[in-house]
């Protein structure tokens, strides 16, 4: 009986030791409410290119940092962007875009990571290829987004990247203006620069 008890205790110690090693160097972060944050959507039209942007969004991430203070793994990431905070400086463009994105029903653009792989790392940046779910106007699609992240001296992590989207893939009809004379293109680009603050 004593032998069995010792074996069980040894097994528990091994399991918790392995768990501690897994969690070692793993830190949780949240999106800092900083003016350094920027989420931008840009596209084209029959008249001119257009851009809408915001610094208002929320989210969190978990990174694993190695002994050399480099990002060795992105465990998880998600963010939520309130569509009504996107502004172009043109009220008509904003209004038609909100309508096209069905903000009366769907208030946020949401991203949730499913998996991630570190592609390369050097003293300045870590390239991470992420697979996740992007939800726009209530439609969710699988996406692959490349992130470029680095750890700041204060322990926070900065990430940036971009992703090209066809609005029609999300059942969004590209907005028109001036009675249909001005038409926006189907393709848009989502660009972001995010500062993750260590919790």
How would you characterize this protein structure?
The protein is an alpha+beta fold and 199 residues long. It has one domain: Lipocalin, CATH 2.40.128. 16% of the residues lie in helices and 53% in strands. It has an 8-stranded antiparallel barrel. It is elongated and about 75 Å long. It starts with a helix and ends with a strand. 20% of the residues are buried. Mean pLDDT is 86; it is low at 10-23.
Reported for the largest beta sheet, the result is: 8 strands, antiparallel, barrel
Mean pLDDT: 86
Task: Give the CATH H-level superfamily.
Answer: Lipid/polyisoprenoid-binding, YceI-like
Q: What's the arrangement of strands in the largest beta sheet?
A: 1-4-5-6-7-8-9-11
Fraction of residues in helix? 10-25%
Give the terminus-to-terminus CA distance: 45 Å
Overall outline:
elongated
Count the domains: 1
Taken in chain order, the helices and strands follow as HEEEEEHEEEEEE
Radius of gyration: 21 Å
């Amino acid at each position: 009986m004593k032998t069995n008890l010792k074996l069980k205790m040894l097994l528990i110690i091994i399991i918790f030791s392995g768990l501690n090693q897994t969690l070692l160097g793993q830190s949780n972060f949240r999106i800092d409410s900083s003016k350094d944050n920027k989420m931008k959507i840009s596209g084209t039209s029959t008249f001119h290119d257009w851009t809408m942007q915001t610094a208002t969004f929320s989210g969190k991430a978990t990174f694993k940092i190695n002994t050399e203070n480099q990002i060795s793994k992105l465990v998880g990431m998600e963010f939520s962007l309130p569509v009504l905070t996107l502004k172009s400086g043109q009220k008509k463009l904003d209004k038609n875009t909100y309508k096209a994105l069905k903000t009366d029903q769907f208030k946020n653009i949401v991203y949730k990571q499913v998996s991630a792989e570190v592609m390369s790392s050097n003293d300045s940046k870590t390239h991470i290829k992420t697979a996740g779910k992007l939800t726009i106007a209530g439609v969710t699609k699988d996406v692959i987004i490349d992130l470029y992240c680095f750890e700041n001296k204060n322990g926070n992590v900065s990430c940036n990247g971009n992703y090209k989207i066809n609005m029609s893939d999300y059942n969004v009809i590209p907005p028109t203006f001036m009675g249909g004379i001005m038409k926006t293109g189907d393709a848009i680009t989502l660009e972001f620069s995010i500062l993750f603050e260590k919790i």
